[in-house]
Amino acid sequence: MRIACIALAALAVTGCATQPPQPTRTAEGQALFDKVTAGRVAGQPISCLPHYRADDMVRIDDSTIAFRDGNTVYVNHLIGECAGLTSGFYALVTKSNGSGLCRGDIADVRDVSTGMIVGSCAIGDSTPYKRS
User: Fold this and answer.
1) Nearest to 54 by CA among 35, 33, 32, 76
2) 89, 49 Cβ separation under 8 angstroms
3) What's the rounded Cα separation, in Å, for the pair 1 and 29?
4) Where in the sequence is the domain holding 62, given as residue range(s)?
């Protein structure tokens, strides 16, 4: 009985230690990601992206967005999926604390014609891709 409890506890701990798999990207999403990051090298992720760096947004897929800022592209892997984000009928609307787009900030997906919220997710870390 004791051995069974120890084995179950060990199994539970190892189950918690593994990372969830990264969402798979469609061929179209992967092609857009490759195009946006072409000729650039990934840097260390940052937890807050200043507002002045977050103007030119590219929707790669429902869980990935990118911001172009000169020679640098900041790729953000959203926490959770913002369903419908790549549809032309929806826009990503964020609320932040004033310092920029930070990890954990809530982003709503809104219908552009009605303004209704159709989904939400959270902002993740932003990885800068700079020209090499």
Assistant:
1) 76
2) no
3) 50
4) 39-131
The verdict on residue 84 lying in a domain is: yes
56-66 residue pLDDT tens: 889 999 899 99
Q: What is residue 132's predicted lDDT score, i.e. its pLDDT?
A: 81
pTM above 0.90, yes or no: no
Number of domains in the chain: 1
**Is 48 inside any structural domain?**
yes
Q: Is residue 47 part of a domain?
A: yes
Question: Does residue 46 lie in a domain region?
Answer: yes
Q: How far apart are CA 49 and CA 66, in angstroms?
A: 11
